[in-house]
Amino acid sequence: MPTLKETASKLNEMLTTGWGATSPIAIENIQYQEAEGQPYISTKFIPFTTDNVTISSASNKRKRTEGSLFITIRTPTGEGIGLAYDYANLISNTMDNKNPLPNLFTYSTKIQRIGDDIDGWFVLTADVPFISDETN
Questions:
Q1: How far, CA to CA in Å, does 13 sit from each of 7, 40, 120?
Q2: What are the residue ranges spanned by the domains of the chain?
């Protein structure tokens, strides 16, 4: 049953494996220097809630965490929206409805448009919700 560390690690691994060499990825809390005009994505692992749950019998107790791998997509302003939405589709195809570890599940990615010109970037977010159960 995955711990928070294992959950974060597995979700980032899934993303980087599926992403390949598409563009650089700035993984949360790892040094990254953006290159001017080069599209990239960045991640944040966000656990929202952790509750105690019982699965079918009182002896089967778990800590259930729900949260999100929050991904920001940045493509240069003035180059159209196609690349940003191609990136969003790749993230969805890589991350949606997966069961990469026992008791770790992802749901459908939520794509949101943030803006047209944020410091020279066209910005979308891809929010990958997850649920993870850790045995007590």
A1: 10, 17, 29
A2: 4-29+37-135
pLDDT tens string 62-78 = 788 999 999 999 999 98
DSSP 8-state class, residue 88: H
Distance separating alpha carbons of residues 82 and 31, to the nearest angstrom: 28
Buried/exposed 58-92: b ≥16 CB within 10 Å, e otherwise: eeeebbebebbbbbbbbbebeeeeeebbebbebbb
Single-letter amino acid code for the residue at 92: S
**CA-based end-to-end distance of the chain:** 9
Q: 58 CB contacts (<8 Å, ≥6 apart)?
A: none
The candidate with the shortest Cα–Cα distance to 73, out of 112, 28, 30, 18, is: 112
Please determine, looking at this structure, whether the domain spanning 4-29+37-135 carries the CATH number 3.30.2000.10: yes
Residue from 62, 21, 20, 15 nearest 42 by CA: 15
- Using an 8 Å Cβ cutoff, are 71 and 43 in contact? yes
Q: Is the pTM of this model over 0.85?
A: yes
CA distances from 31 to 26, 34, 57, 101, 115 (A): 8, 10, 45, 27, 25
